[in-house]
Amino acid sequence: MTGSDTPRTPTPIDAIADAWVDTLLDLTPELRVYLGRPGREGEYSDYSPAGAERRTEESKRVLTDLDAATPQDGVDEVTKADLRRDLQLGLDQNAAGFPLRDLNVIASPAQEIREIFDLMATGSESDWVHIATRLDNVPGAVAGYIETLREGIRTGTTPAKRQVREVAAQARKHAAGNGFFDSFTTGAAASDGELPDSLRADLASGAGRSREAYDALAGFLESELEPAAREDDAVGRDHYALASQSFLGATIDLDETYEWGIEELARMVAEQEAIAREILPGASVLEAIEYLDNDPSRKLHGTDALQRWMQETSDRSVEELGRTSFDIPEEIRALECRIAPTQEGGIYYTGPADDFSRPGRMWWSVPEGVTEFDTWRELTTVYHEGVPGHHLQIGQATYNKSRLNSWRRIAGTSGHAEGWALYAERLMQQLGYLDDPADRLGMLDGQRMRAARVVLDIGVHLRKPRPDGNGTWDAAYALDFLRSNVNMNDGFVRFEVNRYLGWPGQAPSYKVGQRIWEQLRDDYERRAGADFDIKEFHRRALDLGGVGLDTLRSALAA
C-alpha cells in the first residue's frame, strides 16, 4: 500500500472536503486531540442546542457548495458521494431529534466529556497545563449537555429510563472523591521536571470542579430526566433505520438482515460445536471451554502479563504480515498496546496522530477484580484491533495523506471499520494464524456474539417476534438470549445488553459490515476471474480511506 508514492493535485472538491474538516475542528475541539493537531487543547464542543444548530447551518452550507461542484476524477466522485451522504444523514438525524435523546451507557456526551482525557498528552508541564484548562471547562460542557437534554424533555424526545439510570450511576462514580478525576490528577508527573505547586493546585481545583459537574449531571438525570424518560427501550423502525444508515454508511433491508442473522447465528453454533469436538472428542462447546479455561498454558496472570502478551502478539503479526500479505508502511508499524486507565470493560483502538507523533494504540479496559486472562479467547481480539484489523485500516488512511483529502482520512463508519476488523479475523484463519482449534473457538466465540446481537438489536428495536415463538422481543428476553449465546460473566452480559438497548444500530454494524466486505471481495473476484489478486483487492479497498459501505461498493465496482 504505497499510496503516498504518487501525490495528488488537490481539486475544488478536495478543498470543500478539507474545509469541512477545518469546520469540524472548530466545532469539535476534542477532534484535535484525536487527530494530534495542536491548538485549543483545553476546549470542548458546544453541547447545547446552539451547538447543534450551528453544525446544522454549516452542514447546509457545505452541501450547497458540494452540489455546485463538478468531480474532476474518480477520487472526486467518491469524495462527493460520501461527504454528501454523511452531511445529509446528519441533517436528517438532527431533524429527527437525535441530539435531544443522546444518552446511553457507552458512547454519548456523558462518556465523551471524560474520555478525552485518556488521549491527552501527559509528558510535559505544558501538557498538564492543557489538562488543567480542560478540567476547568468540564462544567461548561456538562451544562450545555444538560441544556440539550432539557430541550428533549420539553419536546418529548427522551432516551429510555434504563439508560438514564445506568448513566446516572456512571456519573456518580466520576463525582466521587476516589473517582477518575482525583486519581488522574493526583498522579500527575512530567518528564521535563517537577510540576510547580501552582499547577498542582490548578489540577486539584479542576478535578474538584469536574466532580461537581458530574454530580450535577447525576442529579439532573435522577430528578428531571428519569421521570420524563421513555419506559420502552425500543426506538421503532424509523429511528432505527436512520441509526443503521449512520453506522453502516449503507441502506439495508432490516427484515431480511434479521432473518439472515438468525441463519448466521445457527451456522456459528454448528461451527463451534464441530471445533469443540476437535478440542475434546465428544465434548459440547461448554465442556471444551471449561477444558481450555483450566489449561494453565493458555492463562495470563495480571495486567502486566496481559500488556506484554498483547504487545508481543501485535509486533509479531505486523512483522510477519508485512513480509507476506500486506505492504505495511514503516510509519504504521508502531502500535502501542496499553491497559486503559478506566475499569469499565472493553477493548478499543485509537488511531495515530495525523503526523504519527502519537502511534495507534490498542487499549484494554480491565474490570475491577479481573486478574486472569485466557489467550485462546483473546488472540483474535489483538488481530481485530491491530493488524490486519483497525490499525492497518485506519493507519493506512492516515498514511495516505498525499492522495486523500482530510475528510477521506478521518471519515468512515462503524460498518466499514468494524466490518473490516471482523473480516480480518476470518482472514487470519485463512492465512493459518488460527490453526490451533482453541484459537479458532475463541474467534468463533466473538463471531457468534456478533451474529447474536444482529438478531437481538433488530429484534428489540423493531419489536420483532421472538425466535422461540413466545411473544415479541423485550429487554428481559434480550438478556436471556445473549446469555445463551456468549460465555462471559454476567456483569459483562448485562452491560452489553444495556449498550444495545441504548445505542440502536451500532452492534449489528460489525457482523453486517463483515457480510458486506465479504460480498465485495467475492464480487471483485468474480469480475477479475483468473486475474484476481487478494492483496491487490485489499490495497484498492483500503486506499479509498474512510467511506460508507454503499460508497465503497460503488467505488470498487467502478
Distance between the termini: 20 Å
Q: Helix segment count?
A: 23
Structural class: mainly alpha
Strand percentage lies at: under 5%
Strand order of the largest sheet: 2-4-3
Which runs of at least 5 residues are low in confidence (pLDDT < 50)?
none
Q: What helical percentage do the residues reach?
A: 55-70%
The mean pLDDT is 94
Overall body shape? globular
Computed Rg = 23 Å
Listing every helix as H and every strand as E from the N terminus to the C terminus, the arrangement reads HHHHHHHHHHHHEHEEEEHHHHHHHHHH
Major beta-sheet overview:
3 strands, mixed
- Number-wise, the strands total 5
What does the model show?
The protein has 558 residues and is mainly α. The protein has a domain at 3-234. Helix content is 64%, strand content 4%. The protein is built from 23 helices and 5 strands. The strands form 2 sheets. A 3-stranded mixed sheet has the order 2-4-3. The protein has a two-stranded antiparallel sheet with strand order 1-5. The model has no long low-confidence stretch (mean pLDDT 94).
Give the structure's gist in a few sentences.
The protein has 558 residues and is mainly alpha-helical.
